[in-house]
Amino acid sequence: MRKGSLFNKKIKAIVTAIAFFVCFGLNFFQNYMPADADEDIVVSVVAHRGYSGYYPENTLSSFAGAVRIGAERIEFDVRKTADGKLVVFHDDTLERYGGDPEREFIDYTYEELLTYDVSLDMGQEFALERIPTLEQTLSLIAATDCDILLELKDIGEDESFAREVYDVCSQYQVLDRIIFGSFNYSYLQDIKDINCDCPIMVFASFGKSTLPKKYPAEYYGVNMKTVTPATIKAVHAAGANIYSYGPKNRYQILCLQRMGVDGIITDYPNFQENML
């Protein structure tokens, strides 16, 4: 190969690389760089596992805390115990709370779960905090003006899970305030089969623009690290709404708002006062 030809190819590669990084930088600056701190935040705000930035997550104190600061909507996770009790808990095991990491959550009875302190060392005032039932949680929230984002955790094949959760929500007369969400789309299909008017949210770790086509829904909850303008555009084109979970400060929320998300799911629902 002649030296001139090799030199030209190197120059072309360098120019292409520079052009790529310039375009990437402009896009990053426009969509992701911290926005003006004085900009209004108008997206919908969901309290992730209650007011979990300051209270033990998925507990009655966390939900009460979210209510006290005027949260619009409270998100929590629902699982089932070995003896068929519907409870509010996130993890697959109790490892974070001192339990056996090899023992699945669904292998515990409700009575066994009550022996675990779920305060996560967030203060002596929470030392008696225990895993709440779905009934206890709905009883607390039903008496407030808060809406609900209820996530059905993936507990494997269970044909009755969605129906059981739906029936309890119906009993507490909160169906008109609930969005049912899950990473397991079959559960959401079960909800739609029970009541086609119930809105559902598809949760996704990766924000692919094909989500609306593959998994029709009214809402999508996407990891903030993977949400893109293309995904937001595809969701809106499908007539749906997109929420992003994971922001921990005001700047991240403002950036997501600039990108065009409709809502955010955060541990800090009172970010206006306590976030930078």
Walk me through what this model shows:
By secondary structure, the protein is of the alpha/beta class. The protein folds into 2 domains: 1-31; 39-91 and 132-274, Alpha-Beta Barrel (TIM Barrel), CATH 3.20.20. The protein is built from 10 helices and 9 strands. Strands 1-2-4-5-6-7-8-9 form an 8-stranded parallel barrel, surrounded by 5 helices. Helix 2 packs parallel to helix 4 and helix 5 (161-171) crosses helix 6. Residues 19-35 have low confidence and may be disordered.
Write a brief caption for the model:
This protein has 276 residues and is of the alpha/beta class.
Topology:
Blueprint: H1 3-31, E1 44-48, H2 60-68, E2 73-80, E3 86-88, H3 110-113, H4 134-142, E4 147-152, H5 161-171, E5 178-182, H6 185-194, E6 200-204, H7 211-214, E7 219-223, H8 229-237, E8 241-245, H9 250-259, E9 263-266, H10 271-274
Parallel strand pairs: 1-2, 1-9, 2-4, 4-5, 5-6, 6-7, 7-8, 8-9
Antiparallel strand pairs: 2-3
Helix pairs in contact: 2-4, 5-6
The share of residues in extended strands comes to 15-25%
As for the number of domains, it is 2
**The CATH architecture of the largest domain:** Alpha-Beta Barrel
What is the averaged pLDDT score?
88
Order of helices and strands: HEHEEHHEHEHEHEHEHEH
Instruction: Determine the CATH topology of the largest domain.
Output: TIM Barrel
Let me know the CATH homologous superfamily of the largest domain: Phosphatidylinositol (PI) phosphodiesterase
The quaternary organization reads as single chain
Euclidean distance between termini CA atoms: 58 Å
Number of helical regions: 10
Rg over C-alpha atoms, rounded to the nearest angstrom: 22 Å
Helix amount: 25-40%
Described by the principal axes of the CA atoms, the overall outline is globular
Strand order of the largest sheet: 1-2-4-5-6-7-8-9
Quickly name the level 1 CATH class of the largest domain.
Alpha Beta
Structural class: alpha/beta
Low-confidence stretches: 19-35
Largest beta sheet, briefly? 8 strands, parallel, barrel
The number of distinct β-strands equals 9
